[in-house]
Amino acid sequence: MASSSGNSSSGSPPIQNSGSEEDLRNLMDQRKRKRMQSNRESARRSRLRKQKHLDDLMAQVAQLKKENGQILSSINVTTQHYVNVEAENSVLRAQMMELTQRLQSLNEILNYINSSTATATATAAVGGGSCMFEAEEFQHQGLVMIGI
């Protein structure tokens, strides 16, 4: 059952099938030493694999931290742009409201002038041409008052 390659590490001659206890003990010791050496090498390989895995994870953590920093910077820039656009929109809304009110005032003045002109023209047709001049003068003064 026991066979040997002929290269004993202890320098003893190849083991023969003599069945002596000493030969069996030497064979068991040799197998035990081989098993221990194999276990040590396996444990060393396992430690190296674990260390490599740990190094890879640490590199991945560093890369993810870098990417998170870039994303955070991008978010901050985008947020600042949003705030700027919102401020500009508020100014534009206020200007729009002011211009809408001015337009409404101008339209009211024009409606008043047009209704006065229509009344003056009707009166001028009945009473003479001098009223037409007065309506035009009034219209000119109204436009001067609003800054046109």
From TrEMBL:
<keyword id="KW-0238">DNA-binding</keyword>
<dbReference type="GO" id="GO:0045893">
    <property type="term" value="P:positive regulation of DNA-templated transcription"/>
</dbReference>
<dbReference type="GO" id="GO:0005634">
    <property type="term" value="C:nucleus"/>
</dbReference>
<keyword id="KW-0804">Transcription</keyword>
<feature type="region of interest" description="Disordered">
    <location>
        <begin position="1"/>
        <end position="52"/>
    </location>
</feature>
<dbReference type="InterPro" id="IPR046347">
    <property type="entry name" value="bZIP_sf"/>
</dbReference>
<feature type="domain" description="BZIP">
    <location>
        <begin position="29"/>
        <end position="92"/>
    </location>
</feature>
<protein>
    <submittedName>
        <fullName>BZIP transcription factor 44</fullName>
    </submittedName>
</protein>
<dbReference type="Pfam" id="PF00170">
    <property type="entry name" value="bZIP_1"/>
</dbReference>
<feature type="compositionally biased region" description="Low complexity">
    <location>
        <begin position="1"/>
        <end position="19"/>
    </location>
</feature>
<keyword id="KW-0805">Transcription regulation</keyword>
<keyword id="KW-0539">Nucleus</keyword>
<dbReference type="InterPro" id="IPR004827">
    <property type="entry name" value="bZIP"/>
</dbReference>
<dbReference type="InterPro" id="IPR045314">
    <property type="entry name" value="bZIP_plant_GBF1"/>
</dbReference>
<dbReference type="GO" id="GO:0003700">
    <property type="term" value="F:DNA-binding transcription factor activity"/>
</dbReference>
<dbReference type="GO" id="GO:0000976">
    <property type="term" value="F:transcription cis-regulatory region binding"/>
</dbReference>
<dbReference type="GO" id="GO:0046982">
    <property type="term" value="F:protein heterodimerization activity"/>
</dbReference>
